[in-house]
Amino acid sequence: MARVFIYPATSLILSDLVARFGHKPLGTALSVRERIQTAGLDSPPLQMTPDDAKKGLKWAAVEVPSGVRGRMSLFGPLIDQAEAAVLVSNPDFAFGCMGCARTDELVEYLVRRKDIPVLELNYPLDEEEGILFVRKVRDFLRGLESASPEKAS
Amino acid sequence: MIDTIPPLYAGTVTKYVFIESFKATPDDIAARAYEVSGGVMIKETCFGLQVTGPEEEVEKVIAHIREVDPAHIYVKDRGFPPGDPRRCRANLGGARPGYFGHEFEMGFIRRIAAGLEDLEREPSGLPASGDRKQIHEGLDVSRLMEIIEQEA
């Protein structure tokens, strides 16, 4: 079973497909869960703390906006432990009031720079594309099993 | 102002179960989940369920639910447990922030369902074909039958 980073990291479709085909999806929920289940001085009313913007410095420079650094404190550890990645390019909902285009770019850059298999896709616009989308994900994830048989479960 | 919140349901996982099926409703899968729920907590929602508990038990419940309609039931992790005051709209008002992402993807999830059904129909081991659009220009008889069944 490989740990597969998904982006958008909150994607229902990618999370479901990766788990369905026998791998572990690495999405934001895992980082958020870790934060809210850890007791400490910051068992806070918010899931993000000022410390998170500092932790983000590992992946983004100090002049980068704190919003990007705060997001990177969620995504960065997932990218670090990823053995493969499935990315959807330019998803509408990853930009806007809940998203951040600069974080999207930085995440894509970090994933590409890391020496891991990456599958890049676009969301399907019709059923035929949906069929291709699912097949590409399935074939990519199967390829991970054959590439590292000792990790397959 | 929300007071400091201790860790809730530590050591558990929470998973969303979404259903977009013409064979079953969220109510149906909730009833099915309660059949094997054991110690897990189940919250019914308009789109499906949230299941919270030890990971193994949650996976068992989800596997049981999925048997109803595997290609139309989708699962993902959730960071917060149900009812967490930092996210629950009972405290905050308005839609939960993550709702918009779900709404966006559920808008075309039937295309993914078509892909999953296609995998079930065809023998496994075939590579992804880049020319499927040219092969299937008309409406499949099987697809027509499926539409008629859904509309009935």
Overall strand count of chain B: 4
Please give the count of helices of chain A. 6
* Mean model confidence by pLDDT of chain A: 87
Q: Order of strands across the biggest sheet of chain A?
A: 2-1-3-4
Helix content range of chain A: 40-55%
CATH topology of chain A: Rossmann fold
Distance between the first and last residues' Cα of chain B: 51 Å
> What's the total count of β strands of chain A?
4
Largest interface: A-B, 47 and 51 residues
Q: Which stretches of chain A are low in confidence, meaning pLDDT under 50 for 5 or more residues running? A: 149-153
Rg result of chain A: 16 Å
Shape field of chain A: globular
Q: How much of the sequence of chain B is in beta strands?
A: 15-25%
Q: How do you describe this structure in short?
A:
With 153 residues, chain A is an alpha/beta fold. Helices cover 48% and strands 11% of the residues of chain A.
